[in-house]
Amino acid sequence: MQGLLNIFRKKTLVPQLTNFDPEIRQIADPDHVTIPLDYPGKVRYKPTVKPGDQVYKGQVIAKSRIGNCVCASISGTVKEMTSIWTAQSFHSPAIVIENDGNQSSSPEKIFDGPVDVQGDPEAAMARLRTAGVAPPWSLSGREYEKDGELAQLPPVKTIVITGIRQETTILTSQLLLEQNADKVADGLKRIVYLAPDAKICLTAPEDSRSWAEAKFQGLAEVEYLPENYLGRIEREVISRIHGQRIPNRESYRFHGIAVLDVEYLIAMVDALDGVAPLTQKCLTISGSNIDRAITVRFPLGSSIKHVLASQGLDISSYTRPVVGGPMMGFAQYSDTTPLTYNNGLFLIAEDVTPFDSMAPCINCGRCTRICPVDIQVHMVNRMIEYGQLDSARTLHPDACHECGLCANVCPAERPIVQLLHFCNHEMVHGERYNWITGDNS
Ligand code: SF4
Ligand code: SF4
Question: Which atom of ligand 2 lies closest to the CA of 416?
Fold first, then answer.
């Protein structure tokens, strides 16, 4: 009885940031970087270098089928081609570059000056591709394969640039929007020449309205979002802007929508101006015993260990690093995992007991009440738990955004999102069940 009372007393607040350093700290190059080449369901790059090659920062080291590129994030020697587990728990081939202590080459070595996007949009698109700034409307986001061929996609009707922090602990977009507002405005002006028929939208925090209205007037439709997590879940926001709900497992691009972060808009401006290719990324470090969240800028492919050490943090002080935020992030089992297109690192200091048996559902209904897409979460979960995927399918688990709210409020701490993820993965990719036909094989 006491145990039951205890689980009802559990606090279910979404983790918040109470304090943060607004400065984005540049961290030094690591002794090596590991750059993944495969983002399953998204994009696959083939290496254009081999072990032993000398590469310079900004040099193209891999290309996708449509010519989007990955650039070396440090100068050095290609040590090996290997395979790794990425921060998103995918197995991927990867290029390892060992730092040789040389600094990056000059922009002149990489680019032949600025590109006029208004005068020559095709040259501008080519520049973005070689600079590693994957423009989403140009099919960079996903492979979109159909029978081994690139699928035809509808034209982009809406471009959404996100300037808010979806996860409450990740500050990158918000800080970059505030600190680079002129460059963001510049990027908005240029994007119209690359996608002339698209509606351009920008999401911004409600408390930026006082200055953002004047800054972005006439350049984009600005959607001001509240501070709370529920009001900022990306799929929900995109649905509101676009007027159509897009399930988690469907690409925006198939619906004529492209979504990119302000960080990539800024990187586009730098690439078009011939200033720098995309070799760095910003990420916010926060956690249960970090008083002041820190945002750093690091070379792509740096390890978790390198990024933490640069701020005097030691992984042994924590039970688990989570790449992403506490609601939607991925727990990591190793601090050698490379960080690439990740916006947050959330460190958990409390004890975790991952080998406890799964606690039973007590039918409190909290998960179902909070679900933003109205899934009967408690029902679906138990069906999945007992292998009744046919029954689970009738309750549309595929609508799940994996926003994490249900797991966050569950007093029994059940692995709700993992079960839903398993179910949806099984339905799309599993051998046991065919989502399309509903047949077991
Ligand atoms: S993670 Fe939970 S709350 Fe969020 S959409 Fe999925 S079922 Fe609903
Ligand atoms: S799964 Fe849902 S209904 Fe069951 S205990 Fe957790 S929050 Fe309550």
Answer: 1
